[in-house]
Amino acid sequence: MTAALRPARPAAESVPARLLLCMLLLVLTTVGWRRGTYFAGSLDPVVAAKGALSVVALLVAYAGNRRPHLRVGTGTLWALGLLLAASVLGALTHGPLVAGGVIAVRVTILAVTVVLLLRCYTTAQFVAALARSCAVIGGVAAVTGLSTLSSGRLAGGYPEVDPNMLALLACLVVLYAGWRIAMGTAGGGAAAVAVVALGVVWATGSRTALLMLVPALLVMALHVRRARVGLVVGALLAGVAATVAVASTDAVSGFLERGGDGTSTVQSRFIAWDAATRWADDGWQLVFGGGLSVKIIPVQGQFWTEQPLDSSWVSLLVQAGLLGCLVAGGWALWALRGAFRAPRADRALFLGLLVFVLGRSVLESGLFDATPEFLAFLAVSLLAEGGSRRRLADELEDDAGTPDAGSARALTVAPVPT
Question: 214 and 201 in contact (C-beta within 8 Å)?
């Protein structure tokens, strides 16, 4: 096989140092550093440190924009701006204006940083940097938190991320590895990384993350044009192993029940969701909510008096009101529409990520907050909109003309000589 017929090396293996540093800072500032603690407006060392690191990431991203800019649409930013404006208007009357305003500013800083990075670096480089940052921070958290396994669920040690957040970081790594494998640009190494990340997800006991990971990977698999022998054999072996595990052990049932609280956690979510529908005291709060800092809601008729809002959409109803929910719903549908119109390899990545983060958002909070899933959703939305899709085609053309070029999307199956 000649050099022209040899599959190109995935440029995602080479991530610029500036981009990787900035992404590490972004992921680090969007994960929790203290479990069970919510920002209420007071300034403490943790809040100050995360704010300072966010500004550093913004400055690093801005400093890199002296190179020629890549095309990035602005429609996503209008949707985000409307959502944040609704939350701030709600915080004006609800009370926690400072806390809600600070979180809105943090989200704005993250959004601007992501835009600046996408104007500098290709889609493949950005996604690779995000996955590697999640792998580094999630790996350190998992290793330093091994002692938490005695409680039944793996949580982070340093930083102190909760099990669901740790599972999210691991799932983003799995999705990136799965995308590269599906596009034929990675092999055994990526598969090994995915297996380790899947082990982390299992150890966290996060059922929602694992439940949404399966359809997200299936969506990516549907975009495979010509499956390699190794991929088919590996998938068959994995299917056989999973079948044997389900049939011969109680691992799956134990994972679903999770120490006997399998149904209780779902039932408690319904209690909070029901309380959210009756939370607003007047028409203003019904329309605009109470601000992004509202993450715990009072409940009645239980032996506890309050609980967290475990759903991004129910949280948004309380934080940004009906207006915020309508804007976010239209935003999500618009992102899906744009993803369907993207080139094949980009479509596989975008749809896989959207299926995961949007599906997870039904039972987990954080999609419209300063979180890693917000980074992924925002980036996909920015890249999938009409104002950005031209760059995807340009990147594809560049990769097609350069065997070792910088994107994993054009590196599909190489021609087979006859």
Answer: no
The Cα–Cα gap between 120 and 6 comes to 29
Residue pair 19/121 in contact by the 8 Å Cβ criterion: yes
| Collapsed DSSP state (helix, strand, coil) of residue 297 | strand
pTM: 0.86
**Residues 256, 209: Cα–Cα separation, whole Å:** 12
Q: Which two tokens mark 164?
A: 């669901």
Could you report the per-residue pLDDT of 147-169, keeping only the tens digit for each?
999 888 999 999 999 999 999 99
Q: Which segments of 123-181 are extended strands (E)?
A: none
What whole-number distance in Å separates Cα of residue 169 and Cα of residue 87?
A: 27
Distance of CA 360 to the CA centre of its chain: 9
CB atoms within 10 A of CB 87: 30
Condensed to tens digits (0 to 9), the pLDDT of residues 236-256 reads 555 555 555 445 444 555 555
Distance between CA 406 and CA 123 in Å, rounded?
Answer: 9
Q: Where are the alpha helices (DSSP H) in 183-311?
A: 188-204, 207-221, 229-248, 251-257, 264-277, 283-288
Find the largest Cα–Cα distance for the chain: 74
Do 64 and 173 touch, CB atoms closer than 8 A?
Answer: no
Stretch (H or E) spanning 306:
strand 306-308
Q: How many CB atoms lie within 10 A of CB 149?
A: 13
